[in-house]
Amino acid sequence: MLLTLKILGLLTSCVGIIATYRTFPSNAARSKMFKAFKIADISITKKTKKREIKTYPTIKKVNVFSDKIIILFNIPDGINPDIIEKHEWLFKQKFGEHIEITQMNSKQFILSIYKQPIRQFDYNYDDITNSIKNMNLPILVGQSRSGIEAYDMTKYPHLLIAGETGSGKSTQLRSILSTLIHSDSNKLKIYLADLKRSEFHLFKGIANKVVYDADELIKILRKIKKELTTRGELLEKSEVANIEDLHSPPPYILLGIDEVALLKKEDDIMEIIEEISAIGRALGVYLILSMQRPDASILDGKLKNNLTVRMAFRHSDEINSRITLGSGDAANIKQTQKGLMCFKLDGIKKIQAPYLELKNAKRLLAPYKNKSVEENDQFQESSPMFGALEFD
Ligand SMILES: Nc1ncnc2c1ncn2[C@@H]1O[C@H](COP(=O)(O)OP(=O)(O)OP(=O)(O)O)[C@@H](O)[C@H]1O
């Protein structure tokens, strides 16, 4: 009897130890969070007759996984949610460098604490097919902690890619364009301007036209401008709001410009680029612009507001990062973190861009080399208005 009681006691204390052990990370995380809220004074003060009461954010849930801890918390009414992003440094001091803060709405946040940094993501088309299926113009972003990230450019048009030299922009352009071409090159016309003469040679004979200077680019832009007018008139005549609603929709048009800042003094060019950014979406004409230094004079006003999606690779300082992203996050990416970006669509997310080596891109694109001209003839039949965009 005594022995049975002893065994029972031992078992109970074991269960107790295991339970404490399991809940410990969650309790420790709660207490660290609360300390952070106190240090940053993320609180509002209510005065009663007798005293002042401070209300801090409430921790709604702490989930502990083998590779991460997720903390869901709400800030009280009356606190500006920007204060959480401003104190990211403090959460890093408390929980380590591999954290991510996601704002769910004006009150609710998720703090994710990871054990490991995001790992390199090697490009393999077969691995991404599931993530891009059913998309009209799939833009492969990369790999976040929750998996492969991609979006449909016809839903979120006009992309800005920015980052200092060697941060991963050209590699990202290479993988985005290769994915678009490989997924369905039939419904897309691609025009590229390579003002640094560095990357787009890969797409010669595949894209509809690759140009290397402003004089050649303006010719393309004038044709696209004409096409915008023709498509606009067609929509009006057909009484539909988007080319996708036409009985026989014309192909999408993508204009990619590497190092667009070199064009800032070319008023004619910038004017048409702005026009595309303003009205291109419904007409099926989209932009991908890249630049090393986010140039405030280019990104001012209309164009900046219309570049709805941003990929910010490492930025040299917070001011530049704010021009691209509206937040200083991209300045925190280290020089060694090649291909790591802050991706802004709804909120800002850290994502590792796919690494597609030049030789592998060449292999992937080989079947499309010098085929595009024939395919374009088919477009001309289905879309008579599109003749204006053919080049010799
Ligand atoms: N997604 C990635 N994953 C791993 N390494 C990468 C990735 N992207 C780029 N790199 C590495 O970083 C180097 C520089 O990348 P990339 O040429 O794309 O930079 P960049 O921003 O275009 O530079 P620049 O503005 O000078 O042209 C690459 O040669 C490659 O070694």
Automatic annotation (TrEMBL):
<dbReference type="InterPro" id="IPR027417">
    <property type="entry name" value="P-loop_NTPase"/>
</dbReference>
<feature type="domain" description="FtsK">
    <location>
        <begin position="145"/>
        <end position="322"/>
    </location>
</feature>
<dbReference type="Pfam" id="PF01580">
    <property type="entry name" value="FtsK_SpoIIIE"/>
</dbReference>
<dbReference type="GO" id="GO:0005524">
    <property type="term" value="F:ATP binding"/>
</dbReference>
<keyword id="KW-0547">Nucleotide-binding</keyword>
<dbReference type="InterPro" id="IPR002543">
    <property type="entry name" value="FtsK_dom"/>
</dbReference>
<dbReference type="InterPro" id="IPR050206">
    <property type="entry name" value="FtsK/SpoIIIE/SftA"/>
</dbReference>
<keyword id="KW-0067">ATP-binding</keyword>
<feature type="binding site">
    <location>
        <begin position="163"/>
        <end position="170"/>
    </location>
    <ligand>
        <name>ATP</name>
    </ligand>
</feature>
<protein>
    <recommendedName>
        <fullName>FtsK domain-containing protein</fullName>
    </recommendedName>
</protein>
<dbReference type="GO" id="GO:0003677">
    <property type="term" value="F:DNA binding"/>
</dbReference>
